[in-house]
Design goal:
The chain is an alpha/beta fold and 377 residues long. It binds pyridoxal-5'-phosphate. The site of pyridoxal-5'-phosphate has 15 residues, from helix 4 and helix 5. Belongs to the DegT/DnrJ/EryC1 family.
């Protein structure tokens, strides 16, 4: 291999659309409206149209988006929010920051989503919301989650940071984009996300016009009109330059999803018959856009495989090595080892392999050959 293999190849992705991106960036720079420039409004509209939602609100990053969602929904200190024990820390961090109480729930071992079968058993009179995380690029079981939420009058915030462009498939066969099925969907435009910018960025999606307006106001210091602060808000903005980049890249999002799916299919076929190697399960209620291609490596071999591949110049990543309830900062909530056995086991088993939109056949062949060899000998 001439170039080092990477988990995500952002350089090749940029080079492929360089003239368009450079033009968009130059125009944003020359326009000098660096904050809230016309590109921000235009991108919010394009994002809204793409996702077929009533309102898309842009913000500074995916973590802010979660916080703004919880503020917009009126969650108050002491309220309980249900969140999977196996997720990226941001999902839980904002719950803690707002003095809400995270109520962890175990996950499904094959799809990595929160275990909706356990939801009803942890709902209390203090519960106000559920945050399904569409982990690694596939939607959680939204119809089941929404039905339980409706029954108990809870809000549903879809953490869609890893699943932009995935589609939820309803039982009647109709589809809706990830992040548009609950009350609010939040997302991140971190560079390695399926729709990534050249820095930080985020957004919220909602079908509720009134809530959408509230979210927009909160993201902008709680003001609708300049210097009239109707509610406590935050300063969370998508930069004009980032909006310019995203406007270009949104046009390619479906192609990007297809490219990731092609890489995943090839991996799926290559690894189908390896004992102790479990490829990602595809849920019947979602398409998968593979922000990560995350497998489960059984029999305690995960770390050995990781080191073996590293020696061959192949990166792999453990998303995530420690479940949230066992992270030091979150021990104050009183959870212990053994509370969420599947989340804890997944942290020992999961391994994510390189996947991105510009994967070359020869590179993927080399990765596959080495993984297969590891299990052969
Ligand atoms: C599941 C999930 N939620 C939230 C976030 C936070 O997004 P950001 O890094 O843009 O704040 C991420 C980012 O990695 C994520 O993966």
């Amino acid at each position: 291999m001439n170039e080092p293999i990477q988990m995500v190849d952002l350089k090749s992705q940029y080079l492929k659309i360089k003239p368009e991106i450079d033009q968009a960036l130059l125009s944003a720079v020359e326009g000098v409206a660096y904050i809230n420039g016309p590109q921000v409004k235009s991108f919010a509209k394009s994002l809204q149209e793409y996702n077929k939602v009533t309102r898309a609100v842009t913000c500074g990053n995916g973590t802010d988006a979660l916080q703004i969602a919880m503020m917009g929904l009126g969650f108050k200190p002491g309220d309980e929010v249900i969140v999977p024990a196996f997720t990226y820390i941001a999902t839980v961090e904002v719950i803690a920051l707002l003095n809400l109480v995270p109520k962890f729930i175990d996950v499904k071992e094959d799809t990595f989503e929160l275990d909706y079968d356990q939801l009803e058993s942890i709902i209390t009179e203090k519960t106000v919301g559920i945050v399904p995380v569409h982990l690694f690029g596939q939607c959680s079981n939204m119809e089941t989650i929404n039905a339980i939420a409706k029954k108990h009058n809870l809000a549903v915030i879809e953490d869609t940071a890893q699943a932009m462009g995935a589609e939820y498939i309803f039982k009647d066969g109709t589809k809706a984009f990830a992040g548009t099925v609950g009350d609010v969907g939040t997302t991140s435009f971190f560079p390695s996300k399926n729709l990534g910018c050249f820095g930080d960025g985020g957004a919220l999606l909602t079908q509720n016009a009134e809530l959408g307006e509230t979210l927009q106001i909160i993201a902008n210091h709680g003001q609708r009109q300049k210097y009239r602060h109707e509610t406590i808000g935050v300063n969370s903005r998508l930069d004009t330059t980032q909006a310019a980049v995203l406007e270009v890249k949104l046009k390619y999002l479906n192609d990007y999803s297809a490219a990731r799916q092609k890489v995943a299919r090839k991996y799926d076929e290559a690894f189908a018959n390896i004992d102790g190697f479990i490829t990602p399960k595809k849920a019947e209620y979602s398409t998968h856009v593979y922000n990560q291609y995350t497998c489960r490596i059984k029999n305690g071999k995960r770390n050995e495989l990781k080191i073996y591949l590293q020696d061959k110049g192949i990166p792999s990543m453990v998303y995530y090595p420690i479940p949230v309830h066992l992270q030091e900062a979150y021990r104050v909530y009183g959870y212990n080892a053994g509370d969420f056995p599947i989340a804890e086991r997944l942290c020992e088993e999961v391994l994510s392999f390189p996947i991105h939109t510009e994967m070359k056949d020869e590179v993927q062949d080399y990765i596959i050959e080495n993984i297969v060899n590891f299990f052969k000998y």
